[in-house]
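ok, trying the design again with the full structure, not the truncated one.
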């Protein structure tokens, strides 16, 4: 029997025992101080507007209002892309074949220590391959393990999110990919020098690979030691599964009774095969002509095709996306608000002022580290790596060229800081906690420790590792 087995919402509303240690104290504080992520985004907007008014180079109110409006609605395309990545990833992870695979993996996690040893490498590898895949795998694997093991669910989800943090050092790093892609709009290095920066000098370089592996190993050990004492464990209760059991509904079951023409169309595999043929055909033609290249839209297309193949019928896939929509609704509120923050940061010159302040005191050897430190601050307010690079890149890159500092190291300093600051910025945690079915406050109490540990690891590696 699991101890204190309650639903996530009940856990969040309950009154856990008074904290006895540093980690339990952090969780206790985050539960009582940190508001809902949407409310937090409004508070951050207020802070940014106030800073822009008082210290930004172009902090006049008309400029702030125009920049806020442009940013709020300028991010809608990106927001839809992010929601589609999560929804299509959800449909993959929810497919019967994938669920059986996750259950097979989860069987091996019989204790909290084994759970951490399973979650960290699996989620980290998925996130290194693709950040969207890492988020989905982390949420679903955490749920499967929590159904079987007497483990604190917030601790487990936080472990998955911590393992996901390495994504900006992996194959889907927008900063590394854009600098390696000829003609990319964000390839600031090519625009300034005429050269691209190959991935061998960024994500495959020792100064990136070494801390990435270290973060996974060290945080696995740290999380094992951080697991709450038995009397403070709040385990997972899958209320949605219980409701399905009570009603006898199977989301993948075929409808009973006489099949209509519409039902035959819905259950026909030919609709799936047609869409798969279109998607595969496009990728083959495009990649043969331009070479293999993964961007956000291509990732969505690949996720769509894999999900369709796994769900088999159009109606099964449509139902999976409907269930995914219930998990991604909160993102519809937050992305536009953060878009407004990005707009104000960029339009008033506030972000460039922060970046320049660090650059002016840098030496060639220390510029990558100062780039990293300034990125920590900017990430808390501009949590999208692509948008962040568009703001900070135009200032740190010319400084690297003028000082003859390492351009790849300076650029990846920005990306590596994204890994760190995301552990305090709930922007990317929202989808994983929504899918997992838990409030974010308890999760962020644990990831605050990941922030502190990974900050030291990445900073030291950026400074000392060749």
């Amino acid at each position: 029997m699991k101890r204190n087995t309650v639903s996530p919402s009940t856990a969040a509303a309950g009154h856990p025992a008074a904290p006895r240690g540093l980690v339990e104290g952090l969780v206790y504080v985050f539960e009582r101080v940190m508001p809902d992520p949407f409310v937090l985004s409004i508070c951050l907007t207020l802070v940014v507007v106030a800073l822009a008014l008082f210290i930004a180079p172009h902090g006049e109110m008309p400029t702030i209002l125009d920049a806020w409006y442009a940013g709020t609605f300028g991010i809608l395309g990106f927001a839809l892309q992010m929601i589609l990545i999560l929804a299509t990833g959800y449909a993959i992870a929810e497919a019967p074949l994938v669920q059986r695979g996750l259950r097979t993996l989860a069987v091996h996690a019989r204790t909290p220590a084994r759970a951490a040893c399973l979650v960290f490498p699996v989620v980290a590898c998925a996130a290194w391959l693709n950040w969207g895949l890492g988020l989905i795998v982390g949420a679903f694997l955490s749920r499967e393990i929590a159904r079987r093991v007497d483990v604190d669910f917030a601790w487990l989800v936080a472990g998955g999110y911590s393992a996901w943090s390495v994504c900006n050092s992996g194959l889907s790093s927008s900063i590394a990919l854009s600098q390696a892609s000829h003609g990319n709009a964000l390839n600031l290095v090519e625009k300034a020098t005429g050269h691209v920066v190959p991935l061998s000098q960024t994500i495959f370089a020792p100064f990136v690979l070494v801390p990435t592996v270290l973060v996974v190993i060290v945080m696995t050990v740290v999380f094992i030691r951080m697991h709450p004492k038995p009397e403070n464990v709040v385990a997972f209760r899958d209320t949605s599964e219980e409701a399905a059991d009570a009603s006898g509904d199977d989301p993948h079951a075929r409808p009973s009774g006489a099949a209509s023409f519409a039902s035959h169309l819905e259950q026909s595999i030919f609709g799936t095969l047609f869409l798969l043929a279109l998607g595969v055909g496009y990728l083959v033609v495009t990649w043969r002509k331009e070479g293999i290249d993964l961007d956000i839209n291509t990732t969505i297309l690949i996720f769509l095709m894999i999900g369709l193949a796994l769900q088999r019928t159009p109606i099964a896939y449509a139902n999976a996306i409907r269930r995914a929509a219930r998990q991604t609704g909160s993102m519809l509120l937050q992305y536009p608000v953060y878009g407004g923050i990005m707009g104000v940061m960029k339009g008033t010159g506030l972000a460039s002022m922060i970046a320049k302040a660090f650059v002016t005191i840098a030496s060639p050897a220390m510029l990558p580290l100062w780039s990293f430190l300034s990125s920590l601050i900017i990430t808390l307010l501009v949590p999208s790596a692509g948008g962040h690079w568009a703001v900070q890149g135009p200032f740190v890159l010319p400084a690297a060229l003028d000082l003859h500092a390492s351009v790849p190291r300076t650029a990846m300093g920005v990306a590596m800081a994204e890994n760190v600051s995301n552990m305090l910025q709930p922007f990317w945690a929202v989808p994983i906690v929504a899918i997992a079915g838990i409030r974010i406050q308890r999760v962020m109490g644990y990831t605050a420790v990941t922030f502190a540990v990974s900050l030291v690891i990445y900073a030291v590696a950026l400074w000392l590792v060749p």
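Keeping the full-length input from now on. The chain has one domain: 8-242+265-464.
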